[in-house]
């Protein structure tokens, strides 16, 4: 089990790749482009059940795990089975994991509302499981001994934030009432300043296929309000970081209202189009935002 642990740490020392896979699984379940959904509570019961399968698939896609001989994956020469639960410690263990030798489970948990996730390893054993209930599939959950036996790989990590889920209710309602998908996306960036916004949020808000064009159009509209939208293409991430904003990564954006920086201003600044800019204060006069360098692709 330690060999599996070390291999997972080698592949993902910070947990960023695992967080990405979990985020993609949730967003695939929401299917925001077709449904406009972004909240776990909006899913049907069967869709909620399917999230575990999506997490398993995205982890294998991200890390290119070999198929296991009997279980889901082959990691560091060991068969490992992926177990997902939205509630910590409520993984359901099937009989093949405790009746035919004690197998290794890769236990994964994440919660959109607390914005936390964890991943660990558990050697399944009879002593670490609760008694069997009345379930026909004979699945069992871990007991206190099982919980204490988890070898954590990543624990209490920050999940990639679901931007729409954590916006104020009145902003969400404004997005819902938008007369067009373009207006919804523009509203999203107007109100989510300083927050990383991923492509799934853009798609769910606008339900528009060409999300790259919609972001570019929102950038042009919001420039008159002094707001810029930084994408993941350089030099956008460097601009954002220099201003003390989150650095956009692939398929993610961050917006902010800017004001000209003057000698003596305490805020960090960056030079754009020959002028020094900082993040605007609430009482700053609105000035037209600088034009950002454009490059092809989403985030241009």
Series of H and E elements: HHHHEEEEEHEHHEHHEHEEE
Counting DSSP H or I runs of 4 or more residues, the number of helices is 10
| Oligomerization | single chain
Give the full name of the CATH homologous superfamily of the largest domain.
Answer: DNA mismatch repair MutH/Restriction endonuclease, type II
Strands, total number = 11
How is the biggest beta sheet arranged? Answer: 6 strands, mixed
**Regions with pLDDT < 50 over 5+ consecutive residues?**
296-300
How far is the first residue's CA from the last residue's CA? 44 Å
Q: What would the principal axes of the Cα set say about the shape?
A: elongated
**How confident overall, as mean pLDDT?**
93
Radius of gyration: 23 Å
Task: Using brief descriptors, characterize the structure shown.
300 residues; alpha+beta; ECO RV Endonuclease, Chain A; Arc Repressor Mutant, subunit A; 2 domains; 5-stranded antiparallel β-sheet; elongated; disordered C terminus
What does this structure look like?
The chain has helices spanning 2-11, 16-30, 32-35, 45-63, 144-148, 169-176, 181-191, 199-206, 211-223, 236-242, and strands spanning 66-67, 73-75, 78-85, 104-111, 116-123, 151-158, 197-198, 227-230, 252-260, 270-272, 275-279. With 300 residues, the protein is an alpha+beta fold. The protein folds into 2 domains: 2-158, DNA mismatch repair MutH/Restriction endonuclease, type II (ECO RV Endonuclease, Chain A), CATH 3.40.600; 163-279, Winged helix-like DNA-binding domain superfamily/Winged helix DNA-binding domain (Arc Repressor Mutant, subunit A). It has a 6-stranded mixed beta sheet with strand order 1-2-3-4-5-6. Strands 7, 8, 9, 10 and 11 form a 5-stranded antiparallel beta sheet that branches. Strand 10 and strand 11 form a beta hairpin. It is elongated, with a radius of gyration of 23 Å. The two termini are 44 Å apart. 37% of the residues are buried. The model is unreliable at 296-300 (pLDDT under 50).
């Amino acid at each position: 089990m330690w060999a599996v642990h070390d291999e997972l740490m080698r592949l993902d020392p910070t947990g960023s790749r695992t967080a990405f896979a979990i985020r993609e699984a949730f967003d695939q379940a929401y299917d925001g482009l077709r449904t406009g959904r972004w909240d776990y509570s909006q899913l049907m019961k069967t869709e909620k059940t399917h999230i575990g399968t999506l997490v398993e698939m995205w982890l294998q896609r991200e890390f290119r795990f070999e198929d296991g001989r009997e279980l889901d994956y082959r990691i560091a020469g060991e068969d490992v089975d992926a177990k997902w639960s939205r509630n910590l410690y409520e993984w359901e263990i099937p009989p093949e994991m405790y009746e035919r030798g004690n197998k290794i489970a890769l236990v994964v948990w994440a919660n959109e509302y607390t914005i936390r996730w964890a991943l660990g390893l558990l050697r399944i054993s009879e002593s670490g499981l609760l008694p069997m209930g009345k379930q026909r599939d004979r699945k069992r959950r871990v007991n206190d001994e099982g919980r204490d036996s988890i070898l954590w790989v990543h624990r209490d990590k920050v999940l990639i934030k679901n931007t729409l889920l954590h916006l104020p209710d009145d902003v969400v309602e404004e997005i819902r009432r938008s007369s067009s998908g373009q207006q919804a996306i523009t509203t999203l960036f107007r109100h989510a300043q300083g927050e990383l916004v991923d492509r799934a949020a853009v798609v769910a808000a606008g339900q528009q296929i060409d999300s790259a064009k919609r972001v570019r159009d929102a950038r042009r509209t919001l420039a008159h309000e002094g707001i810029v939208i930084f994408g993941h293409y350089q030099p956008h991430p460097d601009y954002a970081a220099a201003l003390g904003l989150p650095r956009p990564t692939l398929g993610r954006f961050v917006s902010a209202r800017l004001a000209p920086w003057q000698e003596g201003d305490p805020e960090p600044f960056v030079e754009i189009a020959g002028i020094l800019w900082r993040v605007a204060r609430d009482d700053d006069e609105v000035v037209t935002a600088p034009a950002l360098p454009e490059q092809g692709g989403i985030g241009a």
